[in-house]
Structure formats: C-alpha cells, structure tokens
Design brief:
The complex is a heterotrimer of chains A (270), B (415) and C (268). Chain A has 270 residues and is mainly α. Chain A has a single domain, classed as MetI-like (MetI-like fold, Orthogonal Bundle). Chain A contains 13 helices and no strands. Chain B folds into two domains: 180 residues, Periplasmic binding protein-like II (D-Maltodextrin-Binding Protein, domain 2), CATH 3.40.190.10; 193 residues, 3-Layer(aba) Sandwich (D-Maltodextrin-Binding Protein, domain 2), CATH 3.40.190. In chain B, 48% of the residues lie in helices and 11% in strands. Chain B has 18 helices and ten strands. At the A-C interface, α1, α3, α4, α5 and α6 of A face α1, α4, α5, α6 and α7 of C.
C-alpha cells in the first residue's frame, strides 16, 4: 500500500480538485426538490432530452452501419487501404468547431455551396432551408455528425477486423462459404467486443453533444435542434439559473453513468 | 539517453513555467488600457472606430472584444455578476439593461447626463425606469421604422402605409402585379421574431405584461396581432420563419420584397449603390397603426461601466467623450443613428441623411420593451412559440396560450 | 464485390470525407464575390490571401493561435508530469477500483462540472486567464494519460526494473532509467492525444475566457458567426489555420490512434 502512494498522490490531488470537488459543489447547488419538480413540468427540458436521444440514436446507427461497411470494404483493398484510411480519418481529427463551420458554409440557404450547386442545376432552392428550417434542421445536424464521426467507427472496427484470427476465415473459405456468409457467421460475431466498445464510446459522446450544434444552429431554429447540453448552458449562462442547470446536469450524469458502467463491463471482459 | 531525457524534461518545465507566467503576468501592464465589449454587427462598428480614435488621442491601448449578439449578453452577464473586471466599457441592448444593472453590477454615472439627449433614450438608462439614477449613456439611437418602396406605392396609387390593413392591401397588390413578394418579415425564434412582432402587438392594443406586471398576451388582441403577422407572412418569401435582420434587408436591397419593419442601421445600405438595387426608392415611415396608434419599438444601445472595472475613471471619460455632440455627429457620418436632438436637426446632416426627420419622430415616441430582468427568458420562450406559429406548426391561439403559460411560469419561479 | 467496384465506392467515400474540408480551404482563398458564385467555383477562381492577412494581421487570430498553443502544450506537459508516475504506480501496484474511478472521471459530461469549475475559478481569480484554462485542460487530460500509459506500462515486464532494484537501484531510478525509455512511443502518442484534445476544446474555453488575452482558436472562430452576417473569409481562414496543427499532431501519432481512441482497449 505504501509503495504506490507517492506515485499516484499528485495526480489524485488534481483530479479530486477538478472532478470530485466540482461534483460535490454541483450537488449542493442542484439537489433541491424544487428543481426536480420544475424539471418534471419543464416541457422544454423534456423536448431537449427527447431530441438528444433521437439525435444519438440516428447518428449512432448511421455511423455504425457506414463505419462497418467502410471497414469491411477498405479491409479488402490490400496495400491501397493505407492511403484510403489516412484520408477517411480527416473529418474526425478536425476541431469540431471547424467541422461545424465548414458545414455552415455548405448549408447556408442563400450563400452555401449545397443550394448553390442545386441552383446551378436549375432547381428552385427557395424552400430548401436546411439548418434554417425547423423540419430538416435536426437531420442536418445528424448528417454533420455522421460525416465527422463515421471515421471513428471505421477506424475502430478496421483495427478490430485486422486483429481477428485468420484461421476461422481461412477455414470458411476452404469450405466454399460466400463472402456474405463468412462475414455474417464468423467475422461479425468475433467483432462483437470491439463493436460494443465503439458503440458505447460513441453514444456517450453523442449524448453530450455541444460544439457542433452551438455553431450550426445554436439550438434553433426555435427549439428544433436543442439538446440537453445546450439547454443547460443556456439556463446557466443566459438566464443565470445555476441551480436548476446543475440539477439538470445530474440527470445527464445519471444517464451517462449507466452507459459508462456498461462500457466498463465490456472493456473488462477483453 | 538519460542526458537527453533530462534536457527534455528541463526544456518542458521551462516552457510550462513560461506558459504559466504568460497567463499570470497579464496584469502588470505599463500602458493605460481600456477594454470595450461591443456587438459584432453594424451597431458596434461606429463605436469601435470611435474607441480607436480616442485611444490614439489619449495614449491609451484599446482592446475591443466583438461578440455576436447572444454571446455578448452571456459574456456581459458573466463578467458583471462575477465582477471579473475583464471589460471596462460594455455595449448593452436596452432590453438587457434591467438584468445587467441588478445587484449594483454597473457603476452609476458620476454626474447626470446633460444636454439634448432624447428623452426615450435617457429613460432606459435609469434604474428604476424613468425615475432612478443613471447607469449608462445612450449611443445608438435605434427605433423602428417602416421601410417601403414609395415608387411602387405611387405606381399603383396605394394608400400610404399608415395602418396595417393598408399594408396588407399594398402587399397583396404588389405581389400580384410585380415580380416580387408582397412583404418580408423575420420570424427566426428569439430576438428576431419578438422584435418584429412587438409593434404589431402594441398597435392591436396588446401587451406582454399588464399594469400589474402579470402576463397579458393571451388576449383577443394578442391573437389578432399574431394572425396579422401570419397573414403578412403569406406574402413573404418562403423560409421567413428562419429569417434574421440580414435576410430581410437582403430582400429589400435586391428588390425582391417591397416593405418591412426595419432598423435605421440599415438605411445607409438602402441608398448605397454598391449594395442596393433600389437606391432612392425606399421611403421611411412611422410604424403603422391599427386600433392604437403605431409605436416604434425602442432598441437603443447603451454604454455602461461595470462595477468590477479597474479603469472606471478612464471608462467614464471615454463614454462621455463618445456621446458628446461633436462625436455623435462624427459617428452619425459613419452611419450610427444618434441619440441627441441637435445632431438630428443639424442642417448639413439632414441634407445628407434624408431619413433623419422620420428617425427623430420615431425615436421620440418609441416605446421600450418591458423593463424586467426576466426579459431574456421571456423573449426566449415567447420567441419559440411565435416562430412556430409563423412556421405553421401551431395555431395562433395555441401559440399565445403556450407562451402565456410559459411566461407565467417564469414570473412565478422568480418570486 | 469486384475489385474495381470496391475501389470506386472507396473513392466516393474518400471524396465525401474530403470535399467539405476542401471547400472550406477554397472559401478561405476566394475573393468575396467568388465565394457565393452560382454555380459554385470548385477550381477556377483567382486566389487571394486577404482573408488570412485580415484574420492574422489586423484580426486577433494570431493571439488566439498563440493562446491555443500555450494552453495545449502546458496542459499536456502538466498532465504527463502528473499522470505518467501515477500510471506507473497503478501498473506496478494494481488498484482496479481506483483505475476505474479515474477513467470514469473522463466520462463525466463537461456540462456537469462546468458550472462549479466556473465558480471555483472565479473565486481564485483565474477566470479569463491562460493559467486557469491550462489547469482545467490538465484535469481533462490526466485521466486519459493515466489510463493510456498504464496500458503501455503493463506491456513492460517487471523483471527489468526488479533486476535493477536488486542491484541497489531505487524504484524511482529504475523507473526513470529503465522503464521510461521503453515506453517513449507510448509517451509521444499520449502527448499527441492530449494536445489534440486541448486544441479542439470549445465549451470550457467559451465560458472561461472573456477577452483576447485568453481566448483560443475555437472561441475566436465561433465569434465570427454573428447574428446578422457570417464573416466567411475570416472564419474559413481561421478554420484552416486551426486544422493544420491537429493534422500534424495526428500524423505523428497515427500508429497509436486506435489505442488512444479506444482508451487502450483495442491495440490497433
């Protein structure tokens, strides 16, 4: 016991100061029955929560399907795979603010390149309001996240694919199984731990999405793209209700703790 | 290998210390300085230039922090309530004033403002409203005007836009006979839609809060006002439910819409050949009436000094200088709407700015938004439902009812 | 699927990944009139560097860039100084519960801690300062450093340092002279990850900084998105500038990208 203390003490002190202490402070601020009662009736909070879950679900499914498809595809390309991999990673490395800025340029109804290209083909784009229109705004934001983070899933699943034992696959090939059969019956089941890991990591990041939405729509138009993080931010820093904001952030914490625990369990079984 | 590691460690530690020192050492600055927080938009431009000039004249280093509207409010709120003293002079939209002046977070003016400031602009600088001490000086004399294509009104012998009914008739006519929309409104949620809606609400005899300070929007008048706005929206370009001020002005400038409520800051662009296809064709009238006489909405920008500022004297020197008659005139020549009568009435400026008489008339009778520190929350909630009603996803009655409920909840919570 | 078709699809995916970035770069190099041309100009335009000049010479972006560099570097160094010994300690004296707890702090949604952190820094008069931001970023990166480096230390067999200690070497000495050199690749990769995280960070920088002296690149870029208009030129120039260091960092650490992203679980 004594041996490890000097090694870990300095780190522990900082973590206690920056993680545990704020958490306790937050508890003091937010854990009041009045706040939870308000949360129960706060229609806007419910909408924000719903939209966050919807956003997470849509983005996660799309990113997984695309990421897996890309991983399987690139895996079979041999030497050229490295080149493709390097290029495909770029969206994920950008500062999220920069990615959001790039997509604002694309989506802007008057000046953006999306409507500009469509106009060039002769289409009437006056109804295509993308991030400015309540209907499509959330989907546009999901699209941006898909663009930005599919590489993450692609990378993880690709690494997983490459670390798979080759014998079962060889055996299947010798037995004459088709590509699809091999993939469905052998590859995917073997990949399960990595898949779970990737899904959990990504879903936790999706739940607390902030940067991109702040830049793309600031939660608008209206409330169409408001997520929990944004609502908490606005409650604290535009309306000055720190206590209520802290209370809401606990609900967020509870949800992500459940997710984190599942993640830990998966990682432990590796 | 060990040696190089030690060297690396030493180098890194040195870099770290340097970094920390860089962060800590900012307070020991020999040159006098002044930090000004302004709105990143047309309103902030004139102040920025004035500040640089003053800085040169007084050997003071000026740092201008330009922030977008919403973020400016958030930053000001944070700085003022925390007394961090990061800003010496802050530019505030007048609806923000009741919240920002709370708790003694703004320093009162050392002496009452003298001279010919317009009454409505001065009133919003006082806490309590119209009665208390002065905590700011008005810099941008913004109050709404009705922009319309006089040439088209003459062409079709349309009655001038004195009432909203006449506006609607004109919109229908022009849309039918010309290749353009009949009107352009902005209904992006939040500040945009609420600001555009207020004059209509007031003209219909509606109010956000009644005399007792209780929410009063869900009334027959209120719903009727929203109905009119949606009706005008039918003649607006599609997607207007997401428009902000620049989309509105863009449509006016590009001659794709003939009229709108707008702010004086955009007048200069209308007559600028580089940006406008309608030079000289736009006229500026008072806000239209309905059951009640039209009242323009006040939107002055005020200059205040936070209590946490470490350069308060210098800050007051600057804002007094900036709002003095000569400087107001210079700022006016740079496109800033003034807040002093003498500037509006000066002969040479009247010649240059044909809308000055209209601006002055509007400013003198302008009405500010409710003076409550909860305005931001109220505007946020109200804006969501107004925008939804304009987007067609909610009926006007439903929108007003929901908005009223929400505002009631906001007021109740603050007790 | 036939090889040619595979390549075609992969190429489409690659173009989809790179096109928005390419567009951003072109906007930053186009004259204002060209930026919104219909049909859009993908290749044929007269380039200009005015936006870069405006952003960096007369604008505040040089300051923002410097601030980003300082906070990213300083917080990385601090996180390594504190975290590497802790990782070693946890590797040689396992304490699973503590390791778990350290990792779980990485899972905290930032919005949960931001309000107390804001209030704490306010009390300490560290708001709007590079020092304050550096401390916060160190707090972010520390759990990651511990977790990552622990996995690297676990890969180093104990016999080496134990042999040295039998010869009279202290544990710290053995750590410094024998174990540390063996994990240098892991150190570099971890350092790069910390740099990337701190460089890209937005929320805390947005809330904890108020003036040019402390604002970072992401905050500066966000400030170009105003209510009335978007300063496309400055925004894109700054965006491109902000991209470059991250891409350089990432290229340096590409071998360990997978391990870092999966928090050590998948050894890519």
């Amino acid at each position: 016991m004594k041996g490890r203390l000097p090694w870990i003490a300095p780190a522990m002190v900082l973590l206690l100061a920056l993680s545990i202490f704020p958490l306790i402070y937050s508890l003091k601020l937010g854990l009041k029955p009045a706040h939870f009662e308000r949360m129960f009736h706060d229609r806007l909070f419910h909408i924000a929560l719903w939209q966050t879950l919807l956003f997470t679900a849509l983005a996660l499914i799309a990113e997984f399907v695309l990421g897996l498809s890309l991983a399987l595809l690139i895996d079979g390309l041999g030497r050229a795979a490295r080149l493709f991999r390097a290029g495909l990673l770029m969206p994920m490395l950008l500062p999220p603010v920069v990615a959001a800025v790039a997509w604002r340029l694309i989506f802007n109804p008057q000046f953006g390149v999306l409507n500009g290209t469509l106009k060039g083909f002769g289409l009437d784009t006056s109804h295509l309001t993308w991030t400015n229109g309540e209907g499509a705004a959330l989907l546009c934001v999901v699209l941006v996240d898909i663009w930005e983070w599919t590489p993450f899933l692609f990378l993880l699943l690709s690494a997983g694919l490459q670390s798979l034992p080759q014998e079962p696959l060889e055996a299947a090939r010798v037995d004459g199984a088709s590509w699809w059969q091999t993939t469905r019956d052998i590859t995917l089941p073997l990949l399960k731990p990595v898949v779970l890991l990737a899904l959990l990591l990504r879903s936790m990041d999706l739940m607390r999405i902030f940067d991109q939405i702040f830049i793309l729509t600031q939660g608008g138009p209206g409330f169409a793209t408001e997520t929990v993080s944004l609502y908490i931010y606005r409650t604290a820093f535009r309306f000055g209700n720190f206590g209520y904001a802290a209370a809401m952030s606990f609900v967020m914490l509870a949800i992500t703790t459940v997710m984190a625990r599942s993640l830990m369990r998966v990682m432990k079984t590796k | 290998m060990i040696h190089s590691q030690n060297v690396t460690i030493r180098r890194l530690t040195a870099l770290l210390l340097a970094a920390l020192l860089a962060g800590c050492g900012k307070s020991s600055n020999p040159t006098p300085s002044l930090t000004i927080a302004v709105n990143a938009g047309v309103e902030g431009t004139a102040l920025k230039t004035a500040a640089q000039e003053w800085g040169r004249q007084n050997a003071t280093r000026i740092e201008v922090v330009e922030l977008p509207y919403n973020n400016l409010f958030e930053k000001l709120l944070m700085d003022l309530t925390s007394r961090t003293g990061s800003y010496d002079v802050v530019m505030m939209d007048d609806p923000w004033f009741p919240k920002l002046v709370e708790g003694g977070n703004l320093t009162p003016l050392p002496e009452d403002p003298a001279g010919d400031f317009i009454r409505s602009c001065l009133d919003v600088c006082r806490h309590p409203y119209q009665a208390g001490k002065y905590y700011a000086l008005p810099y941008v004399g913004n109050s709404q005007l009705f922009f319309y294509r006089k040439d088209l009104f003459d062409k079709y012998h349309l009655a001038p836009p004195d009432t909203w009914d006449q506006v609607l008739t004109a919109a229908k006519t022009i849309q039918a006979k010309e290749k353009m929309y009949g009107y352009v409104a902005r209904a992006a949620p939040g500040n945009a839609v609420v600001t555009d809606f207020m004059p209509i609400l007031w003209a219909f005899g509606g109010n956000i809060l009644n005399a007792d300070g209780d929410p009063a929007i869900n009334t027959v008048n209120g719903v009727a006002a929203l109905r009119l706005m949606i009706e005008l929206g039918k003649y607006s370009p599609p997607g207007y439910a997401g428009f902000n001020a620049d989309e509105v002005s863009a449509h006016l400038l590009q001659a794709t819409a003939p009229m709108s409520i707008n702010w004086p800051a955009w007048i200069a662009a209308m007559d600028d050949p580089a940006r406008s296809k309608v030079v000289g064709k736009i006229d500026f009238a008072q806000v239209p009436s309905a059951m009640k006489k039209g009242q323009a909405e006040l939107g002055t920008w005020l200059l205040g000094v936070p209590s946490g500022s470490r350069n308060a004297d210098r800050a007051f020197q600057f804002i007094t200088w900036a709002t003095a008659p000569e400087q107001m005139k210079t700022a006016a020549l740079r496109g800033n709407p003034p807040t002093r009568r003498s500037v509006f009435e000066s002969a040479d400026l009247k010649q240059k700015f044909r809308a000055f008489p209209a601006q002055l008339a509007s400013l003198e009778t302008a009405r500010p938004r409710p003076r409550t520190p909860l305005w931001n929350e109220i505007e946020n909630a109200f804006g969501i439902y107004l925008s939804k009603a304009n987007a067609g996803s909610m009926t006007p009655q439903e929108a007003m009812k929901r908005a009223q409920d929400e505002i009631e909840a906001i007021l109740r919570r603050s007790q | 699927m036939k090889r040619a078709a595979q390549f075609a699809v992969a190429t489409v995916a690659l173009l989809a990944a790179l096109a928005p970035v390419y567009w951003l770069i072109t906007i930053s190099l186009k004259q204002e009139g060209d930026q919104f041309a219909v049909p859009p100009l993908w290749f044929h335009f007269a380039p200009t560097v005015q936006h870069y000049l405006k952003a960096f010479q007369s604008g505040a972006f040089t300051r923002y860039f410097a601030n980003s560099i300082v906070t990213a570097t300083a917080s990385t160094v601090l996180a390594l100084l504190l975290g590497v010994p802790a990782a070693y300690g946890l590797s040689r004296f396992p304490w699973p519960k503590l390791s778990f707890w350290i990792l779980s702090t990485r899972m905290l949604p930032p919005i949960v801690t931001i309000i107390p952190v804001f209030l704490m820094l306010r009390e300490a008069h560290l708001l709007n300062s590079l020092a304050g931001l550096t401390i916060v970023y160190t707090g972010f990166n520390l759990p990651f450093v511990v977790w990552m480096m622990q996995s690297f230390f676990d890969d180093v067999p104990r016999d080496l340092e134990e042999a040295a200690m039998l010869d009279g070497e202290s544990r710290f000495g053995a750590f410094l002279r024998i174990v540390l050199p063996l994990v240098t690749p892991g150190l570099s990769a971890t350092a790069v990850f910390c740099l990337i995280v701190a460089w890209n960070e937005f929320l805390f920088a947005l809330i904890l900084t108020q003036t040019e002296s402390a604002m970072t690149m992401p905050v500066g870029i966000a400030a170009q998105v105003t209510q009335y208009e978007i300063k496309w030129g400055a925004m894109s120039a700054a965006g491109v500038a902000a991209m470059v260091p991250v891409l350089l960092f990432a290229t340096a650490a590409q071998k360990y990208l997978v391990r870092g992203l999966s928090l050590g679980a998948v050894k890519g």
